[in-house]
Amino acid sequence: DAMVIQNPRYQVTQFGKPVTLSCSQTLNHNVMYWYQQKSSQAPKLLFHYYDKDFNNEADTPDNFQSRRPNTSFCFLDIRSPGLGDAAMYLCATSRTGAGNEQFFGPGTRLTVL
Amino acid sequence: ILNVEQSPQSLHVQEGDSTNFTCSFPSSNFYALHWYRWETAKSPEALFVMTLNGDEKKKGRISATLNTKEGYSYLYIKGSQPEDSATYLCAFADTGRRALTFGSGTRLQVQP
Fold this sequence. Notes:
The complex is a heterodimer of chains A (113) and B (112).
Chain A: E1 4-7, E2 10-13, E3 19-25, E4 31-37, E5 44-50, E6 53-56, E7 64-67, E8 73-78, E9 87-94, E10 103-104, E11 108-112
Parallel strand pairs in A: 2-11
Antiparallel strand pairs in A: 1-3, 3-8, 4-5, 4-9, 5-6, 7-8, 9-10, 9-11
Chain B: E1 5-7, E2 10-14, E3 19-24, E4 30-38, E5 45-50, E6 56-59, E7 62-67, E8 72-77, E9 86-94, E10 101-102, E11 106-111
Parallel strand pairs in B: 2-11
Antiparallel strand pairs in B: 1-3, 3-8, 4-5, 4-9, 6-7, 7-8, 9-10, 9-11
């Protein structure tokens, strides 16, 4: 089945220790998104790629970086995680832009100790 | 900053009850309105993508309406079942940004 896969499902890191979350898709979609969701809040868009074009949200901290080496994979790098970065991180894809439904992975729950 | 509000925040209903939730969004520069269902420990799943004022969409017992002029959408569930228990998220996109801004969701619990 075509899908969006996120690894790992749960990630524990230490304060200040870099961490990378990964997302892969078999849908061959052009757009890939990273969202951050803190408990019971709205998922917040961090950035998205339209093909290779990177679009950073204005309020995404510099501590968050992303890479998309090919159509299938997208990575979220948190360079120096702080306690406030503990959250659920959701990856999503869509065929084109916001007029199309988004397909989500199950998320990675990040804990920062 | 776009404001997308959902109400109520949470809802407990009995099996068989019909229910509805509201999503409010800016009434200018409308592009699209999405509804997603997010069950615990699963991936959020698209229910509807609505782009036209007056749109009504239906999937089984779930339906949605859209009023872009006044900036609201309703999601209806007819005859709620325990498997409908989930968080229902709406998300809005405007013509300028064309990225989704999500509401914080309505958490529905259906008691058997």
